[in-house]
Amino acid sequence: xxxxxxxxxxxxxxxxxxxxxxxxxxxxxxxxxxxxxxxxxxxxxxxxxxxxxxxxxxxxxxxxxxxxxxxxxxxxxxxxxxxxxxxxxxxxxxxxxxxxxxxxxxxxxxxxxxxxxxxxxxxxxxxxxxxxxxxxxxxxxxxxxxxxxxxxxxxxxxxxxxxxxxxxxxxxxxxxxxxxxxxxxxxxxxxxxxxxxxxxxxxxxxxxxxxxxxxxxxxxxxxxxxxxxxxxxxxxxxxxxxxxxxxxxxxxxxxxxxxxxxxxxxxxx
Length: 269
Known about the structure:
The chain is elongated, with a radius of gyration of 28 Å. Strands 10, 11, 12, 13, 14, 15, 16, 17 and 18 form a 9-stranded antiparallel β-sheet that branches. Strands 2, 4, 5, 7, 8 and 9 form a 6-stranded mixed β-sheet that branches. It folds into 2 domains: 26-154, Sandwich (Immunoglobulin-like), CATH 2.60.40.10; 158-267, Beta Barrel (Lipocalin). The chain contains 2 helices and 18 strands. Strand 13 and strand 14 (215-219) form a beta hairpin. It is mainly β. The termini are far apart. Residues 1-34 have low confidence and may be disordered. It has helices spanning 2-21, 106-110; strands at 40-41, 44-49, 55-61, 67-76, 82-88, 98-104, 127-136, 141-143, 148-154, 158-168, 172-186, 189-193, 203-208, 215-219, 228-229, 238-240, 245-254, 257-267.
């Protein structure tokens, strides 16, 4: 019994000695308020191809140990990480909460990343990631865990209020009034629920001609039926760039004839 007690006591002593020798710095544990350097940047920003001249990224800095500057690093899908810019804070946060907003254009985003000058060559769904390192008054550098994702989308993506009718060949017309999310496919195409049948597996892809703003409707990914512009309404399928609205008339063929969907999609704020 005495030997067991001595062995346990020895293990405790060794553990304490090991712990006391662990001098690993915790400057990079951003959530630890004792180290300071915590910042709260915008989390997610869509970059709409062909529709984003410039945009701002806001970073909130809570009151705490003085931050001299924030180094902003960026990367893009499949690219290395590079230093993007250094934002001067001058320890303003030592006395009060501070917010900083800095502006990006496409030229700013691609600088140093060996990316195409034509943004329309980017793949929908790829993204830039911004990360933040706080430079403290005492010289430490604190890597924040919070990041900003800037995801490539197109200018049509987002939520829309869809209002219109679904006309069945035998049952007649019924109203449509629902929110639809347009998921981007490429620079000029998105897909969404067809009519009010999204839950039943019917989807439509809308492709905008960037010159004429005319819209071509086709089946969305995995749609239960092919979709096409309804030939009976030849002038109804277009995108209005002044209002951001889609005016649509499309259909699919069922067992008893055409199912026609006439809708107006209005972008939601």
